[in-house]
């Protein structure tokens, strides 16, 4: 049994995606070491990268942008420290002519998208492969059950999984939220996305700079991880559009793989497909968001919801949401 898990913590954060890590960092910087638990093998959540044979591919988030001043300062530090790089300032569309974008930088992790959260997680108490199965409340405190059967106590809780997954944990512990909070959370929704990784025996025909916006359906996005600078071996990431991904979510993976490969034929060219991997993201990106950067509840015990469904979307939004959630918790503790 892990001594870290079997105790009461001042703050427990569920999720070591960019939102959970941002919250953890701000709390740790203020002397409150939180415990972060995550079911995945590595920190990062949807900032995910995966090996396919000798190749490496980003199969979740592909790049990020920075508009907010605080996030821009952080990205400037990441650039200086070598953990991220500018990938491009726009990407072509499927017709091969127009360049989408207004020239602002699209950043990528220097090694892979997963490298950024991996670095953010250093010096934090992060427990991977620790799946939460239920959350209950007793005497204004949280009791978090993890898959191994261990119980983690918490005075305060930050939940950063996609909202339906976070709500399922509370439901499993029979925790009822106050109606305004429950109603605000019920309005949030996400789009699913198929991510198909395709390892090739030679370079793809994806045009420079190695990323392109597809026609939308069935292909929304295509990236060549070799050109991107992530993989030494040729491997392409294909993201299906939300229409195709929603309609076909429970279909046979082999059929989905075949259809997406067929749709991507002209970018694969005469390369031989050596291996494929299909990932189904049930909650890929928030479609309907909560307007504020987090949502706090005091009953039955202190709780903050955060992530890319709060405030602004995507990586930048998720980071800012986590930061705001951590700061809100600090303010509540201080008051
Ligand atoms: C296919 C795809 C393409 C994308 N493209 C882009 C892009 O190009 N640019 C961009 O900016 N954004 C993109 N995004 C969105 C971006 O990845 C997310 O907005 C951001 O990473 C969300 O971070 P988060 O911390 O809010 O959530 P997550 O990264 O989802 O983190 C939540 C964490 O909670 C954990 N968790 C869930 N349930 C449990 C449980 N029961 N027990 C323990 N842990 C649990 C998960 O393992 C996960 O690590 C993309 C996403 C996908 C899926």
Summarize the structure.
With about 325 residues, the chain is an alpha+beta fold. It has helices at about 20-30, 70-80, 115-120, 165-170, 180-185, 225-230, 240-245, 255-265, 265-270, 315-335; strands at about 10-15, 35, 50, 55-60, 85-90, 90, 100, 105-110, 125, 130-140, 140-145, 150-160, 190-200, 210-215, 220-225, 235-240, 275-290, 295, 305. The longest helix is centred in the last third of the chain and has 21 residues, at about 315-335.
Task: Give a description of the structure.
The protein is an alpha+beta fold. It folds into 2 domains: 8-39 and 130-188 and 289-334, FAD/NAD(P)-binding domain; 49-104 and 189-287, Polyamine Oxidase, Chain A, domain 2, CATH 3.90.660. The chain has 10 helices and 19 strands. It has helices at 18-29, 69-81, 115-120, 163-172, 179-186, 225-228, 242-247, 253-263, 265-268, 314-334; strands at residues 8-14, 35-37, 49-52, 55-58, 84-88, 91-92, 99-100, 106-109, 125-127, 132-138, 141-146, 151-159, 189-200, 211-213, 219-224, 235-240, 273-288, 295-297, 303-305. The strands form 5 sheets. Strands 1, 2, 9, 10, 11, 12, 18 and 19 form an 8-stranded mixed β-sheet that branches. A 5-stranded antiparallel β-sheet has the order 14-15-16-13-17. The protein has a two-stranded antiparallel sheet with strand order 3-4. It is globular and about 65 Å long. The relative contact order is 0.19. The structure holds flavin-adenine dinucleotide (FAD). Flavin-adenine dinucleotide binds at residues 14-20, 37-40, 45-47, 60-64, 131-132, 160-162, 165, 169, 193, 195, 239, 281, 284-285, 307-308, 314-315, 318. Flavin-adenine dinucleotide binds next to α1, α4, β13, β17 and α10.
């Amino acid at each position: 049994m892990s001594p870290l898990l079997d105790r009461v913590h001042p703050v427990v954060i569920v999720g070591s995606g960019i939102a959970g890590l941002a919250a953890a960092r701000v709390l740790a910087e203020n002397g409150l070491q939180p415990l972060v638990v995550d079911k995945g093998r590595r920190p990062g959540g949807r900032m995910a990268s995966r090996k396919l044979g000798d190749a490496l591919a980003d199969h979740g988030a592909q790049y990020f942008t920075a508009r907010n001043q605080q996030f821009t300062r952080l990205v400037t530090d990441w650039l200086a420290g070598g953990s991220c790089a500018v990938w491009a300032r726009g990407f072509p569309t499927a017709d091969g002519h127009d360049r989408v974008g207004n020239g602002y930088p699209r950043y990528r992790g220097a090694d892979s998208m997963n490298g950024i959260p991996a670095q953010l997680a250093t010096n934090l108490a992060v427990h991977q492969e620790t799946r939460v199965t239920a959350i209950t409340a007793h005497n204004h405190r949280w009791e978090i059950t993890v898959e191994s059967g261990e119980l983690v106590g918490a005075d305060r809780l930050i939940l950063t999984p996609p909202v339906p997954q976070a709500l399922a944990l509370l439901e499993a512990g029979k925790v009822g939220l106050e109606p305004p909070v429950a109603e605000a959370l019920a309005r949030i929704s996400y789009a699913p996305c198929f991510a198909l990784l395709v390892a090739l025996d030679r370079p793809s025909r994806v045009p420079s700079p190695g990323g392109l916006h597809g026609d939308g359906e069935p292909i929304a996005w295509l990236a060549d991880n070799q050109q991107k600078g992530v993989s030494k071996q040729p491997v392409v990431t294909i993201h299906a559009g939300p229409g195709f991904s929603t309609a076909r979510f429970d279909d046979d993976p082999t059929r989905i793989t075949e259809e997406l490969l067929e749709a991507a034929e002209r970018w694969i060219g005469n390369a031989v497909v050596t291996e494929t991997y299909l990932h189904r993201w049930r909650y890929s990106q928030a479609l309907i968001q909560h307007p504020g950067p987090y949502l706090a509840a005091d009953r039955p015990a202190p709780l903050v919801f955060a992530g890319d469904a709060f405030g602004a979307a995507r990586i930048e939004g998720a980071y800012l949401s986590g930061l705001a959630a951590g700061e809100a918790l600090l303010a509540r503790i201080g008051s």
